[in-house]
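Contributing: when you submit paired examples, paste them exactly as shown. First protein:
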Amino acid sequence: MAFRCRFTTIDRTGIGNQASGPPTHRLPGTGRDRHDPEKPGTMDFMQDITALGEFLRTRRSRLKPEDVGVASYGRRRVPGLRREELAQLAGVSATYYTRLEQGQSANASEAVIDSLARALDLNEDERAHLHDLARPVPAKRRRPAKPAMVRPGTRQLIDAMGEVPAVVLGRRNEVLAWNRLGHLLLAGHHAFDAPDRIADRPNLARMLFLDPHHRNLHVHWEEEAIRAVASLRVVAGRYQDDRELAELIGELSMKSPEFAVMWSRHPVATCASGTKSFQHPEVGDLTLEFEVLHLPDDSGHRVLMYSAKPGGSSEAALKLLRSRVGSAGF
């Protein structure tokens, strides 16, 4: 499966292997360990610093001394650069970097973060994510967030796209609305009006890991799963005080060992376009191009749309699925 998205290399060791158990990392924004779901906690900025340290460690571990011109002496207990080696590359003191990675220092300057990004050889998505994590959320009393709702104009727009499967997603990958074709493509086993009921609202990330029907829809499930986790990481860094997002991540970490392993690797990527392969229960195999359009406001909502290349079997399969819309009386 080829998709035009940039990803950090993921170590797949342990994915799906429950013999050794999922990693015992702390869930960002929850204040509790994944093996102690009943332990209360608070969403303070220390959780964000923990995520910052985790991200720095994962990126430090992927650098080889010889690749960055660092002389290697003695046996290394862990892969990658030592803290003092990275600090030297970034032009900061080893003591300061250690405090930063251990969550004992906050409010790093933009210049320090940029130096660390260069030393870690971060790509554009990772660099932006590092800056998000290094920006602590001010402590304040948070009111319960209102459920996200699709704008009437956006719903009208996707309903007018009768030839194109379209879905409106909230920033946590919750489905705010879909047109008839988008519903049949991704989740025909759900009620069409499920997005309108907050308690029943589908979430594409949750479906991908916990819904066997949706999981079996994806021919290359693991790549799709990594893509979903990498996107959630970006959102978690950008909205560090989002309690509902933290609860979603906690739920997936506890219920899916595969998600827990992927999350612990800290993949980071945004994906605006690409290709997905489906094995649909009604129309068979089809490969579709997708585009993601972000709405021009601060809601974080986006429209996900699919299309098939003209003249191929996927276009025929999509037309067949479109005929199912009419036959279902929609």
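Second protein:
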Amino acid sequence: MSALDRAVASAVVRAGAPGRIRFTRRQLYYEVCRGLLPLHRLPRRFRFTLPAPVGYERFLAALDRHGPVPGLLDDPAARVAAPGDDVPDLYDYGLPRLLVCQDAAIAGMLLANELHMESACPVFAERDLPLDPRLTAALRRTGDATVFVLHDAGAAGYATVEAVREWAGELRVHPLGLRPVHAAALHLTAAARTAASPGMAAPAGLEPWEVRRLRAGHTVEVAAVNPARLLRTVHRLVRGQSRTRRRSARLRQLQAAGFMTWPAA
């Protein structure tokens, strides 16, 4: 067995942990990269991203040799939802939050792991825009609803944010990231470099070095984040749960009893 084959076998175990998480091929690929080049363990104060130690096509060949992978999701071949699709009557009562993902595969992964149930937050992909008008009406009915955007750390990711803002109109839009600073702190593996966009407008709130990386065509995909970390982080962010916020004794008891924890399957 080659080093790459062993890395794939190990990555399959890690990608699904804990609790049999379901994951995409791109997420498994980046898990393989972490196994082959484990510099992500270095302290976060050293900010850098990593080159891919193996090409995607070589990974796919090794994945074929490995055989069936429990938890591996099929690539999305159709829209997650479309205007005119049936919308539950529950939305008639108002909707406090909604998540739009740049990557349809990531949207599918979050849905497969029931994030929309755990976080009480419907999940869609950018390609589903415009969403059913009843969803928009439900968001407006709440009064302070938020549309969250999960996007790659790249020029296309921030184009997704602008596309969501254009659709959302007066609704509040909150980008969750990935930002270049997040990717550098987590030492994520970078994707293939895209064409430079020197005229790209600087997104609000980014550091000058982040803007330079975006304009130079550097991209880090959300899929490069470990699946379990991604689920935890998105859940915390859409629910407004700060990592440093002190929880009440009652909430700690509920959490210990299984409330607000990820399902085992």
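If you have annotations for the second protein, write them as plain sentences, like these:
The first strand starts at residue 97 and ends at 101.
The chain is about 40% helix and 5% strand.
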